[in-house]
Design a protein that fits this description.
Elements: E1 5-14, E2 17-27, E3 32-36, H1 43-51, E4 58-63, E5 66-67, E6 78-81, H2 93-103, H3 108-121, H4 137-149, E7 155-159, H5 167-184, E8 188-192, H6 195-201, E9 204-209, E10 212-217, H7 219-224, H8 229-234, E11 241-247, E12 252-255, E13 260-262, H9 268-271, E14 280-285, E15 290-292, E16 301-312, E17 315-322, E18 325-332, E19 342-347, E20 353-356, E21 362-365
Parallel strand pairs: 3-8, 3-9, 6-7, 7-8
Antiparallel strand pairs: 1-2, 1-4, 4-5, 9-10, 11-12, 11-14, 12-13, 14-20, 15-19, 16-17, 16-19, 17-18, 20-21
Helix pairs in contact: 2-3, 2-4, 3-4
């Protein structure tokens, strides 16, 4: 019974402070939309506005074409999963899941069927008689999700539901939520500050900062085609490397420390519309775009000294210095890179990113 959600020019302020600045977006039926951004960007406030826990100052919120902006939360046909589980400690798993159904006075046989079906989906059948205090964080969060599932809402709302879990449980719960979304064909809006969660779960990501949408699109689009420096550095882990400099008429990029990069000819047509000579720019490169140079490899090569090495399983994150610039490079662990090593690195990528230093807006993304 998933529904379509539309947010149109929503504004939310507290006194003189605008927390949500005229935001518009939508979630089609069955779509998983993730709101992501740093603390204080307005993502949780936006979710609470959709839920009816906050009153909007202007704009509209509609579900399946019906405006719900002035409706109470219980009348919006939504179900919300909170960060802190919000379970009743004196009730067992069965009664926590059944609570909303009992409030709606559904028949007992129907309640039992729904609770047991949700428990089976969430691997909770053996825990139905257990109290929350005797359960792990991951189990409690599955109970909270089960309580939302049985309501069969038009829109699921998730407010940073994995933040209290350890790394392994977060990974397990991401898989669980993704599987449930697929099985239920549910419309969902999910709030997180963790871009890994956003990239792995979302059909569509909406990046927020300062109460405004910076960019929205698929995870692939945001990773490879960021609109600005904020999106480029927020999406992707490790973060994109940034080097400040200028470009001359021959498309030679020269950094503040005199590192030189000749912009390849294939990008010339994309830059022809911009008067870039002498303009202060920022060159962005993903960590995977610098590789250890091989003798026969084509490309511009740079001498780098390794300052820090972080082992990450099959890959190693090497923090290097190139011509006075700190850059992060992802290398195969079997390359055996160590602190103090001197490397010859080559820039190798079909993508090139240039941003305006003043506005942060993308000038070249090709």
């Amino acid at each position: 019974m998933s529904g379509e959600l539309k947010i149109n020019n929503v504004v939310k302020s507290y006194g003189d402070k605008n927390v949500i600045n005229s935001i518009s977006f939508g979630a089609t039926k069955g779509e998983f939309v993730v709101l992501v951004g740093p603390s204080g960007c307005g993502k949780s406030t936006m979710l609470r506005c959709i839920a009816g826990l906050e009153t909007i100052n202007s704009g509209s919120i509609t579900i399946d074409g019906n405006e719900v902006s002035d409706k109470a939360p219980k009348d919006r046909d939504i179900a919300m999963v909170f960060q802190d589980y919000a379970l009743y400690p004196h009730k067992d798993v069965y009664e926590n899941i059944a609570f909303g159904l009992r409030m709606r006075k559904e028949p007992e046989a129907q309640i039992d069927r729904k609770v047991r079906a949700a428990a089976a989906k969430l691997d909770l059948t053996e825990l139905l008689q257990r109290k929350p205090a005797a359960m792990s964080g991951g189990q409690r969060q599955r109970v909270a999700i089960g309580r939302a599932i049985v309501r069969d809402p038009k829109v699921f709302l998730f407010d940073e539901p994995l933040s209290n879990l350890d790394a392994k449980l977060r990974g397990d719960m991401r898989v669980t939520i993704s599987r449930l979304h697929r099985e239920l064909e549910a419309t969902a809006v999910y709030v997180t500050h963790d871009q890994v969660e956003a990239m792995t779960l979302a059909d569509k990501i909406i990046v927020l900062n300062g109460g405004k949408i910076q960019q929205m699109g698929t995870p692939v689009k945001l990773y490879y085609h960021p609109n600005n420096i904020f999106v480029a550095t927020f999406i992707g882990s490790p973060t994109m490397n940034l080097i400040r400099g200028t470009v001359d008429a021959q498309l030679m990029f020269t950094s503040e420390n005199n590192l030189k990069f000749q912009i390849p000819e294939r990008f010339k047509e994309n830059l022809s519309a911009h008067e870039l000579a002498g303009k202060k720019l920022i060159w962005g490169m993903r960590t995977e775009n610098l590789k250890i140079s091989k003798e026969d490899q084509q490309g511009q090569k740079y001498a780098a000294s390794v300052e820090v090495v972080e082992l990450m399983g099959p890959q190693t994150s090497a923090h290097c210095i190139i011509e006075g610039h700190a850059v992060n490079v992802m290398l195969p662990t079997n390359a055996g890179v160590k602190v103090g090593d001197q490397l010859d690195l080559v820039f190798s990528s079909s993508h090139l990113y240039l941003f305006d230093e003043t506005s942060g807006v993308s000038i070249l993304d090709a």
